[in-house]
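LOG
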Amino acid sequence: MQQEPLHITWIDPPAFKRVPPSNPMRKASFVVPRATGDSEDGELTVFYFGPGQGGSIDANVDRWVKQFGEVKPGDVKRADREANGLHEHTVELASGTFSGGMSMGGAAKAKDNYGLVGGIVETPSGPYFFKMTGPSKTIKQAKPDFYKLLDSIKSS
């Protein structure tokens, strides 16, 4: 199956390891190296569904946050930003119980003390969704690299 070309480019953070996407909905996947003391790596996934596809900004942010149990509204940080003429919407959740992953047998086991940093980038060809999850220390450590990636995105 041939993938359509990406309509944006970005610079991969040197610390993140690009890996083959695990399903066709993903346009890119990265292993985010674990912080000292964390038992596993984090993950950054990039999704693109096409012009006008993928749902609204708020619906996606709400879905991502609902993948974490018992989150208080004050725990979620949202921001709007601009980079290279593109509008970006970001969301951060420092720590919660993450149950949003899938495993081969269905829903994955809930993971305590997990974090989220996400970005939705509006482009002329439709929104791109960047979602990074993993152990809280790992996500905190990787957050500057995530924002450097977002700042490097250009529409092609």
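LOG (cont.) second protein
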Amino acid sequence: MKAARRATHVGLSLALVVVLLAVALPKVTGAGWGPVVEHLELLTAWQVGVLLGLWLLGLYAHTFLATAALPDLTHRQALQLNLSGSAVSNLVPFGGALGMGLNYAMVRSWGHGPGSFAPFTALTTLWNVLVKLALPVLALGLLLAAGGLPTPGLALAALIAAGTLAVVLLLVVVALASERAAAGIARGSQAVATAALRAVRSRREIACEQAVLDLRHRMAGLLRRRWHRMLLGMVTYAVLQATLLWLILHMLGSSLGIVPVFAGFSFGRLLTLLVVTPGGVGIAETGSAALLVALGGDAAVVAAGTLLFGAITFALEIPVGGVWGLLWWRRSARTRWAR
């Protein structure tokens, strides 16, 4: 029964992705598929190579966050974790738990203790969410500084993101600064989790207060020593991804400047937090394209550019990360067999 519900959920999510990309994207941009394909066919092999190189450079920049959040993790291992976990997470909606399970097994196989994975996951997730919330606020400020008129959609998104960012930052600062506050948050989380379990008629008991306090202590120590490295990794990663989108659009013939492209990129990154589809795919591309067209982008170029950006930053991670994950599994299996 659970497998059937899971399959239905996956099928509906994938159907939504198809509808968004095949119907909603052409509708919001006003571009038919013919011109979109024609623009994509203009790209040369060396241009595609440059784009892939920039994508890989961005992924390498992200490893600075991972290696700071998990001491003794190498950059190669961090890249393997990122791609392999994303390959699993991107295949199904709410697949983050599956990707997290794979990453945990990989981290343990490399000799890291079981207590190191929780702060690693919490810190990398926290930084990713904070940056995605901050990007639309920064984009709105840049548009205003450049004399541009922000669209109502971007202004509303920036307002919501700013409010959410403020709340998240306040909770994080309070929880890290005060053990009493952290204990209160832990008790509140425990009460919510227990109520949720009772709602589904589960008698399972959850005791998370001490676990949250231990996690807080580990996170606070890592942040004190390595926050600058984490910030550098995330900022560089975001800049390189925004540059990738601008370069794609430029290669396809767009005349949009870096500020409006950054606004479209920021809005799309914010929408990836909506995990109705795997990684927010379809939703992010449609929203980003709509904003870029509203800011003066050519419809066909924008549609082609956002699709290619999604193909590189989302779809390409599935086969690349999948192969890398399988190689790790085979090597790990051989090690266990040798023992």
